Amino acid sequence: MIPKTLHDRGVISRYRSFLPVSEATPVVSLNEGSTPLIHSPWLSGVAGDGAEVYLKYEGLNPTGSFKDRGMTMAISKAAERGAKAVICASTGNTSAAAAAYAARAGMRCAVILPAGKIAAGKLLQAFIYGADVVAIRGNFDDALDLVREFSAREEFEIVNSINPFRIQGQKTASFEIIEELGEAPDLHILPVGNAGNITAYWLGYREFFEAGKSSRLPKMVGIQAAGSAPVYLDRVVEEPETIASAIRIGNPASWDGARAALRDSGGAVDVVTDEEIVQAQILLASRDGIFVEPASAASVAGFLKCHGKARCAKCPFPAGKANAKIVLTVTGHGLKDPGTPAAKEMRITEADATLEAVLSVLKLA
Ligand code: F0G
To answer: Rounded to an integer, what is the distance from CA 365 to the centroid of its chain?
Structure first.
């Protein structure tokens, strides 16, 4: 029996009254959520006009991504109905979270992954948490189609974001932002892959607005990788490609949710190139000290595209509005993907173990 106090810091205990749980729900938590909202002097300066830019650093969740918020809900509800096993398709982070929370609940976890397309750290997570890993010769969209076929099997709970409890858990990130800022931001920028997260954030913002905890709603901006941009192009992409493997998705499951968030918030969707993603990843680490995986850097790349020299025409940034508050979600930790092209920054210089040699390398000799 796990002492109750150990579960008192996760998103279910923090936002119980906004979530579909009851006394009968066994809470499976790893103290996810309550991630820092970090002010970025660099990006605030880029925006100008007194704007304040904040990064919601979701890489600091227990398995290193925002997926933990949804997974505590999905696994707790699966445990409530007595499921013995869970299954998901994934580009890596969902499978890491599913494997960890299933381990915690004593459930079997099966993950279906596109072979050769998962960042090394995420793949290691699935194995170390004890999941059964199947690598299919196909992409994420094929994997999700396969997983949908498991809905007929009673013993399995599907824990992709087609499971509505995932969206419920993930909406708590919006709650935290409103509580921290004392108000909803003017603009919220986040990467879009399977589109569950933008759907969840918009739900969270609306619920807190309706509960009187904020007096406005943000404009939602979704950023996709140029080679995997179905929402931007408004059509399925058969062979999505991008170095941001987490968002290499051509047919998002929550497409309708993304459309509604973009339309109802007066927001926009834009694309960034792989080069822009890698550049943003390096700049965020070297200027703000925040290391995120490539998919997460898409938020920053999108922001820089809109607010840099070539301000994009479609951007709903409240132009001329002084002191705007802008939040960027950075969804996953940089250490998950050591194979990122940014790794070429590692230029190791060896030296003899003498002060003279070290000073010489540091150009201090
Ligand atoms: N950022 C990261 C780091 C992700 O892992 C994902 C999605 C996204 C952004 C996009 O979020 O799908 O809700 O639009 N990863 C899923 C996975 C697909 O399997 O881990 P989304």
So the answer is: 45
Ligand 1 center to 183 CA (angstroms): 26
CA distance linking residue 95 with residue 153, whole number of Å = 19
pTM: 0.95
For residue 67, report the distance from its CA to the centre of ligand 1, in Å: 8
pLDDT in tens, 281-313: 999 999 999 999 999 999 999 999 987 544 555
State if residue 196 touches ligand 1 by the CB under 6 angstroms criterion.
yes
Q: What is the DSSP letter of 332?
A: B
331, 335, 340: residue to mutate for ligand 1 pocket, most atoms within 8 A of CB: 331
Please give the Cα distance from 62 to 97 (Å, whole number).
8
Alpha carbon of 332 to ligand 1 centroid (Å): 9
For the sheet containing 156-158, what is the strand order? Answer: 132-136, 108-114, 85-89, 156-158
CA distance 105 to 77: 11
Name, in order, each residue with C-beta under 8 angstroms of 188's C-beta and a sequence gap of 6 or more: 177, 201, 205, 218, 219, 220, 221, 326, 327, 328, 329
